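Exam prep: given the inputs below (a chain plus NAP), describe the expected output before reading on.
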Amino acid sequence: MAYASVNPFDGKLLKTFEQLTDEQLEEKLDAAAKCYATWKHTSYADRARIVARAATLLGERVDEFARTMTQEMGKRIDEARGEVTFSAEILAYYARNAEGFLAPEKLNPTIGDAHMQSSPIGVIFGVEPWNFPYYQLARVAGPHLMAGNVLVIKHAGCVPQCAIAFEQLFIDAGAPVGLYTNLLISHEQSDKVVDDARIKGVALTGSVAAGRSIAARAGQNLKPSSMELGGSDAFIVLEDADLDHAIPWAVWGRMYNTGQTCCAAKRFIVVETIADAFLERFSAALAALRAGDPLDEKTTMGPLSSESALVQLLGQVDSAVAHGATVLMGGKRVDRPGSFMQPTILTDVASTNPAFRDEFFGPVAMFFRVKDEDEAVALANDSDFGLGGSVFTADVERGRRVASRVETGMMFINNISWSDAELPFGGIKDSGYGRELGDMGIQAFVNKKLVRYAKVEAPV
Ligand code: NAP
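Solution:
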């Protein structure tokens, strides 16, 4: 069963869902295309009424939405509530700001006058991951619906209840039929959707493998795409850093969402004079976390999203060790029911170890000692990924310098405030291309049309 809701806290199967037949898929694509024919002509105010209403409803139903997420993929309940609230804020942000972001932009040619006009392009296909089951949806729904596009979404196989709840949210908000459609489809059907002439753009958030497959398909079809893929972000600690400030960020950066975040801190790169002190405090803080029921507010570490995610992560740790890495702490599943992984620190990960270039999607930190700032930057840049990263230092100017030298899409100085409705999010290299959120996020799937008036002689 491709779409099944299983609680990773106890392994219980909650619900299964049938995939769409090809006929049902065709009906949904047809409805989306028909919806676009009218939605593209609606005013920003009319679009905003529906998107803002969805934001309000989400804000009113935080507990209900959060609980579904916690049961389906194991996110601790306070983090789940935070995600639902943030998703509502993203929808509200675009309802408020879309018209301003897409207003005609005056150009200043030497002859005549000209402007850029922004218009929607059609039905956009989104493929989304389970690790932020609503936030990822809000990140595409807010901007693209407000731009006048229409969405069909394939969510991850393990979070069908979240996927359906988000679709229902738009129905409850008064969305016309076809405006936002959840598709319970296979990968093969997904390929057909990318190929379908009614689809005008593709937005994927997920693994590098999925990105390569969907981006290649979109490219074959000459369709614009945005790819938000994996990461292995560096957490750089310079010798002048305040460890009282850096350690809580290090724990949060690695352990938030049980480490299953694309831009989580995954490689801890610490200047040697401070490395022992950092490691001692970091490992003590990780050891203090307690695995438990993610619905219980007192739990400090939830399960991974699924048993298969745990098995994959354990395999990656074993492979890292087989290639010479040392397990400083953890490395095993927690001895209790459910898909729990011990907080883990790996050291001695040589650049020849396959783990060096891997993404560990869970509570596994790689730790590196470096001589100085230059070595820290060189190591941070020795990665196939380029999503985000952070630097901790007492000298903010130094932090800015390091931030500008690290080759990623985002850098944070003395914090890791990853995501903000107002600020663009995305990466380079194997972390993908394009940006979501902020003003840039709404520009991904609009036609930027040049309109020029000039009183010039007709050619003879
Ligand atoms: P995944 O296996 O790539 O799945 C993501 C989505 O893509 C799911 O809906 C999945 O559907 C679908 N998918 C995968 N292969 C596909 C194919 N060949 N054709 C059509 N659809 C396909 O990734 P994941 O394990 O769920 O998510 C974790 C990854 O996402 C990590 O690498 C993480 O870093 C990345 N991520 C990136 C960002 C960002 O903004 N950069 C944010 C969050 C997560 P099924 O579930 O049905 O296979």
